[in-house]
Structure formats: structure tokens, C-alpha cells
Amino acid sequence: MNPFLLIRGELKRSLGAALAIALVLALAASLGVTVSISERAIRQGMAQAGDDFDLLIGAQGSPTQLVLGAVYLRPEPLQPVPHSLLETVRNQKGVLWAAPLAFGDRWHDAPIIGTSSDMVLLGGKRQLSEGRVFSADHEAVVGASVPLGMGERFSPMHGQVATADTEQTHGHVSYTVTGRLPATGTPWDRAILVPVESIWKAHGLAVGSSGYSALVVKPQSIAAAYRLRSAWTNSQFQGIFTGEVLTSLFATMGEIRNIMQYMALSAEGVALCAALLAGFFAVSLRRKRLALLRALGAPGRYVIVTVWLSVTLTIGMGALLGLLLGWGTAQAIAALVQDSTGVALPVSLTHHEGLLFLGMLAAGSLIALLPALSSYRTSAGDTLRG
């Protein structure tokens, strides 16, 4: 006898109930999948955004603030380092190139960063997707997402963050777009890079009279990187590896992820219990029909397998829907994160999510044995006489 024929008939009669149980399971399973995919995507996206910032040198303070400000272009309160520091660092042994970063102005939501051609081209490693590097104080290179075309002119606005106050535009200063950076999937896609000297001039300061927010340093080797960091970590300055700061942040994220995973597992456990109760309820409603099958000669194992398959298929459908729902939710989260921060998050399904799916399916198949075995507990004769 083919149990799937009976299961198909049962599903037709109670499709709504089966879908309801599957949806509850899907919502519970999707939480764990969403947490797993999103946490991994955030780690990968943030790490990729910091690939070109091996070593940062800034004033003493919070390393996290320095990384968030210099790498992710967050409006952090960074204390300036003196103008003379740049040439000192550039002349040190083991430095491939060094570039200044000066923050403070913007054009609408695009931060304007004073720097040098070394930062624009990453010391020759990167080519512009359009145009050329700035060669005068009134020229600018824009990120891939900045809505300005080649040759367009604009004036900077004061402050790193837009406020409800009237916009203060440096009307006496204007830039002409001469180049565009390639898309990087980082906050720098929204940035505008200008000669650092123009930042000082825009604020009425003499060239060299003010400092930099930070320095980006490209060491020649790993040994040189450690030597330079040690040389510039003192009571006045801090030399930090972006990767080390990110590792610390990821450790905190990992703790949050574990808590969320525990919550997800608890939700899945509750959902499986609901599926178990639904299985017992379904067996109770169909006890006479199952007893009639046994009275007509259906072996006990046929009844057990039929009930077990019916409950397992419902749980499997919920687990599969949860996998797809979790992936879709992670995609939506990645889009929101990129829209608010500029960091592109690579969302993908891996073996880890596959193990979550198989784990729930395995747990569900074991749980399904309980209502399946209960369907054979009472004799067919007693059930039909009742």
C-alpha cells in the first residue's frame, strides 16, 4: 500500500491547518537563518571596507572612533594630528605611501574629505572609472554613488551632518568634478575627495596651520607595519591596525549573535512543540479512520509510517519556508544597512544554514514519531466500537 495516496487525501482535507503549522515553523526557523546570514554578511562587508586601511595614525583616544571615522566615514569627534606629522611618517623606513584625511564639510549627504592623490589612487593600485585625479585646489574626485557628473560645479556645506538649521554653504568656494572612483561597496562610494589644502582655505585658514583628522599609512611589509605601529603609539598618538579593531567589534557581535541564536533555537523548540501537539490532535481526529484502515487489513507499520510522513512533511515544509524567508529577510536587512551606511553586505546561503535546516528537519522527524506511535496504541476494535 502506498502511504502517499492517503497523505495526499489528508492534505486536501486539512490543507489550511497544515499550512498554518508550516507557517509557524517557518517564522521560527527564519529567525535563526536571518541572524546567521546577517551576522556573517556584516562581518564580511565591514572587513572588505577596511581592506585598504592597513594602518591608521591619529591622536590618542578611542581606536574604535578612529576606525569608524576614518574608514566608515562616521561623524566621530577626532582630535587633529599636526600638519608636520605627515612628512615625518612619509620619510620613515617601511612606508610605501601615506595620505592625510581631513573631515568637516559635506555636499548634501556626501562627506567631503581632504586628502592627497595617494589616497585617491591607493598609491597606484586603483584606477579611476572616469576622468582624472584633482590637480588644483578647486577640483574634486567623487565616489561612484555621488550624483555629480564630470565638469559639474558645487559648493561645500559646513558640518559633517545635516541639521534642521539653515544650510551653511561656503559660497566663496566651489569645486569642479574631474574624476570618479570605481564602485567599492563601502561608504567611500558616497564621498567627495578634494585636495586637503582646499579644506583649510574653505575655512579661512593658512595652508599648514591646521592638522589632519587622521593619516592612512600603507606599510611595505607586515614587519614594517608592526614597527610603524609601535613607533607611533605613545602618549600623543596612536597607531592602530584596522583589522584588530574590527576583530574586537566582531567579538562583541559574536556574543550578540549567540544570544540571538539561543532565542531562535527556543522559538524553534516552541514551534516544534506546537507541531507535536498538532500531530496528536490530527491523530485524535482521525483515530477512527486509521482504525478502519487497520480493520481492513492495513499493517500497523503502514499506519505509523503514514502518520509519521504526514507530520514530517509539514515540518519539512515549514523548515524550507523558514530557510527562504530567512534569506529574504537578510537581503532586506542588507539593503537597509547599505542604504544607511554605504557598506555592501554580501548575503549568501552557506552550509551553516543548510545544517540549521537539516537540524530542524531531523528534530521534526524524531518528534513526528510520537504521534505516529500513538496512532497504533489503541486497538482497532476498541476504537471502532467507541
Structure description:
A hairpin with a 2-residue loop joins β2 (95-107) and β3. Helix content is 53%, strand content 14%. It has two domains: 3-47 and 249-385, no CATH class; 61-234, no CATH class. α2 packs antiparallel against α11 (351-367). It is α+β, with helices and mostly antiparallel strands and 386 residues long.
Radius of gyration: 31 Å
Helices and strands: which structural class?
alpha+beta
Low-confidence segments: none
Shape: elongated
* Elements, N to C (H/E): HHEHHEEHEEEEEEHEHEHHHHHH
- What separation lies between the terminal Cα atoms? 27 Å
Helix content: 40-55%
Beta strand %: 5-15%
Summed up, the helix count is 13
Count of individual beta strands: 11
**Structural domain tally:** 2
- The averaged pLDDT comes out at 84
What are the salient characteristics of this protein?
single chain, 386 residues, alpha+beta, 2 domains, 11-stranded mixed beta sheet, 13 helices, 14% strand, elongated
